Amino acid sequence: MTLRITLVRHGNTDANVEKWLQGHTDTTLNTCGLSQADRVGERLSTEKIDKVYCSSLTRCHQTAAAITAHHPGLQTVYLDGLRERGFGKLEGQSIRAAFRGYNRSLQSSDNHVKAAGGETEAEFRQRICTTFQEITEEARAAKETNILVVTHGGPLRTLTHWWVNELGYISKDDTVVPAGNHGNTGVTCVVLHDNKDLGNVIEIHNSMSHIQEDTGPAPESV
């Protein structure tokens, strides 16, 4: 059985614009984000979707709702495991202020986040990858062939890096940037084959065609 998974980042929030750490803070979409959600909903309106898996945070709820409005009766499962990385007491601070004096690629940054009650990169990665595996296993057990995942930029960046660098997913058009940020309501699609000879394929990566005219560089995924 082939399993097609469409993944969407939530729409724009004031925190994205103002560049402060959201993490587990339950922010909502701003006017731009609501418009983006409507547009991605229209884009996916004719797609076959068997079930939706969504982060338990409101900004993802709102994005998922704009999509499921075109698919009446579709079941949505809300999961804490799909949340953005938790930054503890650093949440609500500007990204620059929260990490002043720290190189975010170094262990000192991880210790800084952990001391504030947040997740280390390893803890975050383990949570996201485990949740993705659980979703795929559940979908296969239910014989679902098309599912939608609505989550955040951090999880999408982490998953992309894992798919490409560790699991050997193939990029259909060589546009995948494993360490790159995903834009608000950017659409990614992966196809998983039972036949290992076919490999798993990233068919679409961070596609913004539904809002391309409004889109600048992808904001920091936090």
From TrEMBL:
A UniProt-annotated Pfam family: His_Phos_1
Hydrolase recorded as keyword: yes
Keyword terms: Hydrolase
Binding of substrate, residues: 9-16, 59
One BP annotation, GO: regulation of pentose-phosphate shunt
Keyword Ubl conjugation among UniProt keywords: no
Identification of the protein by name: Phosphoglycerate mutase-like protein
Organism of provenance: Phycomyces blakesleeanus (strain ATCC 8743b / DSM 1359 / FGSC 10004 / NBRC 33097 / NRRL 1555)
Organism classification: Eukaryota, Fungi, Fungi incertae sedis, Mucoromycota, Mucoromycotina
